[in-house]
TrEMBL record:
Residues 86-104 have a biased composition (Pro residues). SUPFAM superfamilies: TolA/TonB C-terminal domain. Residues 131-160 have a biased composition (Basic and acidic residues). Keywords: Membrane, Transmembrane, Transmembrane helix. Residues 62-160, 200-223 are annotated as: Disordered. The chain crosses the membrane at residues 12-32. It comes from the Bacteria. This is Colicin import membrane protein. Residues 73-85, 200-214 have a biased composition (Low complexity). The keyword Transmembrane helix applies.
Length: 316
């Protein structure tokens, strides 16, 4: 608390009054302890004569020896006077340094009153120990609930991170599988191209040799080999075909087969004329695909990429 000039002046005045009272008490004490002047009494003064005790008669001396001893009066010991302590000079007040600089101008009046109800704050009862324990217990329970909620939230976030990592891993595996499948298809296509080139060269060489040795009149075609090739195709497809009950034995159907050298079937479809119903047509197309690779070795000279085959329904 900062000491003002009025407080300093008031302290000095009280100190002077205290000194004045102390000096007055000392003066009264000195007057009280001063000895009283002797008082003169009326009458003649007392006369006394000195007598030698040895000059007295024996009877007088005996009487003097038997006289009672006077009672000695005890003088009271003088009590030391209680003197008040000398007044000590008061220390000079030292001005204290203001912790904060003096305000340049008075603080503005705050027109907005305090919204809190001071009477309600003052009248609020002091919490009892039981109430304080209950508050602490409720606080601990709330902290435990908050801790459990934080742990649950962390567990949910951890599971989400794991699920995201697993999804990314599966996506990477799927990309790797697609890349491998693509590379495999490209390798197969490259191998098929190489095989096609080799087959084409073989067909050209066989055709050239057949043309050189073929007898005149048949344009260099071996009709016996072509018939055997058609019979081999009929037998291979028939081995993979299950004849439906709606297709009679001996019924004929024309097939258009697109194949590669080596007997790999690219597509197979039914063409007119065909005496089979819809079920029979689908079954014969599926049998051609199941029968691949179709016969090729030994029939290179009569091999055709776009082959037309007249298939006859028979039992195996």
């Amino acid at each position: 608390m900062r000491e003002s000039r009025a407080d300093t002046a008031q302290a000095i005045v009280w100190a002077l009054l205290l000194h004045a009272v102390l000096f007055a008490l000392m003066f009264l004490g000195l007057q009280w302890t001063r000895d009283n002047a002797p008082v003169s009494a009326a009458g003649s003064p007392v006369a006394a004569e000195l007598v030698d005790a040895n000059a007295l008669t024996p009877a007088m001396q005996s009487t003097l020896r038997k006289r009672p001893k006077p009672i000695e009066e005890t003088q009271p010991q003088p009590q030391p006077e209680e003197t008040a302590p000398l007044p000590q000079p008061l220390p000079e007040p030292v001005p204290e340094e203001a912790p904060t600089p003096p305000q340049a101008k008075p603080q503005d009046f705050i027109p907005v009153p305090d919204a809190s109800n001071q009477e309600a704050v003052v009248d609020q009862p002091t919490p009892m120990p039981a109430t304080e324990d209950k508050v602490q217990e409720e606080k601990r329970r709330q902290e435990q609930i908050d801790l459990t909620e934080r742990e649950r939230q962390q567990e949910v976030e951890r599971k989400q991170r794991l699920a995201q990592m697993e999804a990314e891993r599966l996506k990477q595996l799927e990309d790797i599988r697609k890349q491998r499948a693509k590379a495999s298809r490209e390798a197969q296509l490259a191998e098929q191209r190489l095989q096609q080139i080799a087959d084409a060269r073989a067909v050209q060489s066989s055709t050239a040799s057949a043309s050189a040795s073929a007898p005149p009149g048949n344009n260099g075609a071996d009709t016996g080999l072509q018939a055997r090739y058609a019979a081999a195709l009929q037998e291979a497809i028939l081995a993979k075909w299950t004849r439906p009950e709606t297709v009679p034995i001996g019924a004929r159907c024309r097939l258009l087969i697109h194949q590669l050298p080596g007997g790999q079937v690219m597509s197979a479809e039914v063409s007119s004329p065909c005496a089979y119903d819809e079920q029979g047509r689908r079954s014969i197309e599926a049998a051609v695909l199941k029968a691949q690779p179709l016969p090729y070795a030994g029939f290179e000279s009569v091999f055709q990429r776009n082959l037309t085959l007249n298939f006859t329904a028979q039992d195996q």
